[in-house]
């Protein structure tokens, strides 16, 4: 897989590695966390989650149980649940989206929830000694813009020394 430095997307060395490829198959050594954004209403069925579910049943099962038991769990905007899917691979289900539809209240993405979730993710990744791998979170169905999400990743993960790779589909 060809690696593109942050510079190719403008703006010097960002500290984030951008690659073409599939975020569900990170090609680096060591412990890896695949991070993605979920909604806060229990919906799992469109976008990146489908790629996750094709590889592993656990992230979806964990998310659905977490939502079902939300009266007694921390399920809600900004929360993170780490799901182990392989010896060296974890999936971070991060709640960063309110509902699923763009409408009168704007887009579903909640930047402050993504920010909170990334801060929690950083703690988990640091504890695991893991690198973090993700699609352009919050920018697909959630309707966000990368120019708002990227600085959150820089602040919460990169500045703590956690390696981050962002995957763009090579269609």
TrEMBL record:
<dbReference type="InterPro" id="IPR050892">
    <property type="entry name" value="ADP-ribose_metab_enzymes"/>
</dbReference>
<dbReference type="InterPro" id="IPR043472">
    <property type="entry name" value="Macro_dom-like"/>
</dbReference>
<dbReference type="GO" id="GO:0140291">
    <property type="term" value="P:peptidyl-glutamate ADP-deribosylation"/>
</dbReference>
<dbReference type="InterPro" id="IPR002589">
    <property type="entry name" value="Macro_dom"/>
</dbReference>
<feature type="domain" description="Macro">
    <location>
        <begin position="3"/>
        <end position="171"/>
    </location>
</feature>
<protein>
    <submittedName>
        <fullName>Macro domain-containing protein</fullName>
    </submittedName>
</protein>
């Amino acid at each position: 897989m060809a690696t593109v430095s942050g510079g190719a997307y403008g703006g010097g060395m960002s500290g984030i590695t951008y690659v073409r490829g599939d975020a569900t198959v990170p090609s680096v050594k060591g412990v890896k966390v695949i991070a993605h954004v979920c909604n806060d209403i229990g919906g799992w069925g469109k976008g990146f989650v489908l790629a996750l579910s094709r590889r592993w049943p656990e992230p979806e099962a964990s998310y659905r149980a977490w939502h079902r038991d939300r009266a007694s769990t921390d399920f809600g905007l900004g929360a993170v649940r780490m799901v182990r899917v392989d010896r060296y691979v974890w999936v971070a289900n991060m709640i960063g989206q309110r509902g699923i539809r763009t409408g009168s209240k704007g887009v579903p993405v909640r930047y402050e929830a993504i920010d909170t979730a990334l801060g929690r993710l950083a703690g988990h990744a640091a504890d695991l000694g893991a690198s973090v791998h993700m699609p352009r979170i919050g920018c697909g169905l959630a309707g966000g813009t990368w120019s708002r999400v990227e600085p959150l990743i820089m602040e919460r993960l990169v500045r703590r020394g956690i390696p981050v790779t962002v995957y763009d589909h090579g269609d």
